[in-house]
Amino acid sequence: MKLAIRPKKPKRFIQIPQNLTSVFSISSDSSQLSPPIPEIDSEIDRITRLINDHPFHPLLFRHIPPSLLSTTLVEQVLGRLFSGHSNGLKAFEFFKFSLHHSQSFCPSPDAFEKTLHILTRMRHFDKAWELMEEMKQKYPSLLTLKSMSIVLSKLAKFGSFEDTLEAFDRMEKEIFVGRVFGVDEFNVLLRAFCTQRQMKEARAVFGKMYSRFSPNTKTLNILLLGFKESGDVTAVELFYHEMIRRGFTPNVVTYNIRIDAYCKKGCLGDGLRLLEEMEQSNCFPTLETITTLIHGAGIAQNLSRARQLFDEISQRNLKPDIGAYNALMASFVRGRDVKSAVRLMDEMEKMHVRHDNVTYHTLFLGLKRSDGIKGVHKLYRKMAERNFVPKMQTVVMLMKFFCENQRLDLGLELWEYLVERGCCPHGHALDLLVAGLCSRGRVKEAYMCSEQVLERGRHLSEGVFLMLERSLVQAGEADKLRKLDQMIKRLQMVLPSSRGHALGLSASTTVN
């Protein structure tokens, strides 16, 4: 039975704070991509660009020898396709090609989960089910709680309440055959709703199924975190006391959630009070606890307390990680002490703590306010020298900033930087760049960027197409407009567009 997806209104993206992901984590050996092996780096770049830059299936046979496809290489290529928001069907095709034509590729949980994530993110649920069905037959060990979580979370986001429950039932009866569903699987279902702040649905599922799946500590912590994510401290405390009445004993995750709820509201004093309560209960604070409080100190604009809490990490026989450094950096940026944030970035290098996307994004935000285009450009150059590829949110922020400051040269440079590294820049980045280029009569460059997106199997937004249509007609470039129209219609044959995507020229439109 094929699962129908009923469209829902789009919702704001929810990011679970780094310091609280443990309560939602699913046990898996593939939670992190393995570091690339230097010898295959160039092949990873080549294959990623190849997949992004060309049409579908035939090129794989012509340009990728199956003997080249090791497990590590496939994992790394899929990681690049995932972070670059590449066409989900291309990633699916690459995984299947590796699976069916390479004797040296043994499908790993990481490769399977990345492919599932790419497909469901682009709402290709039929392909996700197809992939899970094949894994059930050939590699049932790859069907883990994490893979279940990926699919259910995206269904909760894009589908309906009924769709998600139906998928859970289908997984139990048709996909995870032979596995007895218990509280761990129940927790995955609850997590799917809680990560989307759908607490009414989460409570409904809890009330309907708790008698079948005996809740454990993690179950109640997932619900507590869901209430915290909804931003209602009162709801968090009410549910916490309900948990206590049920005979629940709070653990360190419970305290971390409550502390974060207060810190997010700027109530640092309440967070510190709970820290004392933890210690008195012999529930020892973790690195995540202190990191949460550093965030809270930043929100409360108490920079000295943020630094003090950071310094206490080593005094507690803990070692600061990238999350703790990023929390302190965010505190400096919130307090407009960007110089200290820059020095902290240098300190991280000395301590061999690698910068991640949060590090760059946070400092870019600070430099935008303090140093303007000069400071942002300097950090951008530093990032590019290290071949760091930023995530979508940072790309869109930079593109918007460059275009607003009349630096279309930097916008185009960022675009080319991403394309050269096998990324297909996100649609919002293209919208901003095309709008900036067309408004200044640079239609040829706007057309070139749009053509690259279509070549990579991604649709144009309706707004971008209309801007290009108007600008190309005014510039007397009817041939380019017809070519764009043909590319859009060819892509629709392989990958149907959704609402808001360009459909090309209508039959009644004439182009002279």
Characteristic key phrases:
Mito_RNA_Proc_CCM1; PPR_rpt; 512 residues; Serine Threonine Protein Phosphatase 5, Tetratricopeptide repeat; single chain; mainly alpha
General description of the model:
The structure is a single chain. This protein has 512 residues and is mostly helical. Among the domains are: 40-139, no CATH class; 424-504 and 508-512, Serine Threonine Protein Phosphatase 5, Tetratricopeptide repeat, CATH 1.25.40. It is built from 26 helices and no strands. It has helices at residues 41-53, 58-63, 71-83, 88-101, 109-121, 125-138, 145-158, 161-175, 183-194, 199-209, 217-229, 233-245, 252-264, 268-280, 287-299, 303-315, 322-334, 338-350, 357-370, 372-385, 392-404, 408-420, 427-439, 443-455, 462-474, 478-494. Helix 11 (217-229) runs antiparallel to helix 12, helix 17 (322-334) runs parallel beside helix 19 and helix 19 (357-370) packs antiparallel against helix 20 (372-385). The longest helix is centred in the C-terminal third of the chain and has 17 residues, at 478-494. The model is unreliable at 1-38 (pLDDT under 50).
How many DSSP-defined strands?
0
Amino-to-carboxy terminus distance: 49 Å
Low-confidence stretches: 1-38
The best one-word shape is globular
Round the mean pLDDT to the nearest integer and report it.
Answer: 86
Helix fraction, binned, reads: 55-70%
What portion of the residues fall into strands of 2 or more residues? under 5%
Overall structural class, as computed from helix and strand content, comes to: mainly alpha
Series of secondary-structure elements, N-terminal to C-terminal: HHHHHHHHHHHHHHHHHHHHHHHHHH
Main sheet specs: none
Count of DSSP-assigned helices:
26
Gyration radius (Cα, Å) is 25 Å
Keywords: Repeat
PPR repeats: 216-250, 251-285, 286-320, 321-355, 356-390, 391-425
InterPro entries: Mito_RNA_Proc_CCM1 (IPR051114), PPR_rpt (IPR002885), TPR-like_helical_dom_sf (IPR011990)
Organism: Nelumbo nucifera
